[in-house]
Write a structure and sequence with these properties.
By secondary structure, the protein is an all-alpha fold. The chain has helices spanning 12-32, 37-48, 59-64, 66-104, 112-147.
C-alpha cells in the first residue's frame, strides 16, 4: 500500500463511529443502573453475558466514559449486597439445620418448606456470586483503564 491508501478501520469516520457506540453503551448502562433491584440484577446478567467486550475498551475510552464506569460500579455494589444477603441467610439456616440435625439424630428435617427455601437460597446465592464476580472483573478492568495514561493515544 502507498501513502495515499487509507485503512478504513483507522479512519476518522470509523473512530467517530466507535465513539458514538461507546456513548450509546454508556447511556444505556447509566439508565439500566438506575432501575429497581430486579432489573439491576438483570443488567448485571446482561453485562456478565459477554455480549459487550469490555476488555477491548482502551484506557482513553474508559476515561471518556466515566458514567459507564459509575453504572457498572452501581450494579457491582447491588450484586455484592444481594450476594451478602443470601449468604447471610444461608449462614443462619446452617446454624438452624445443624441444631435440628443434632436434635433429630440425623433424621429428616421436620419443616420441608423451610428446607426447600434453604435450597432456593443456595441457588440464588451461587447465581449472585457468579454475577458479582463477572461484573467485578468488568468494573476493575474499566476502572484501571480509566486511570491509565497512555502517551500513544
Amino acid at each position: 500500500m502507498d501513502d495515499d491508501t487509507v485503512d478504513i478501520s483507522d479512519s476518522e469516520e470509523a473512530k467517530a463511529s466507535v465513539t458514538r457506540l461507546l456513548k450509546a453503551i454508556e447511556t444505556w448502562a447509566t439508565k439500566e443502573s438506575q432501575k429497581n433491584e430486579l432489573e439491576m440484577t438483570a443488567f448485571g446478567a446482561a453485562l456478565a453475558s459477554g455480549i459487550i467486550s469490555f476488555h477491548d475498551f482502551t484506557s482513553k475510552d474508559c476515561r471518556n466514559c466515566k458514567q459507564l464506569v459509575g453504572a457498572i460500579a452501581r450494579v457491582k455494589q447491588h450484586l455484592e449486597k444481594e450476594h451478602k444477603k443470601f449468604d447471610s441467610e444461608i449462614d443462619k439456616m446452617h446454624i438452624k439445620f445443624a441444631q435440628e440435625m443434632e436434635e433429630l439424630d440425623l433424621k429428616i428435617i421436620r419443616d420441608r418448606k423451610e428446607f426447600k427455601q434453604y435450597l432456593i437460597s443456595l441457588i440464588y446465592a451461587e447465581e449472585y456470586n457468579k454475577l458479582r464476580h463477572s461484573v467485578t472483573n468488568i468494573y476493575e478492568t474499566l476502572d484501571a483503564k480509566s486511570r491509565y495514561e497512555d502517551s500513544s493515544e
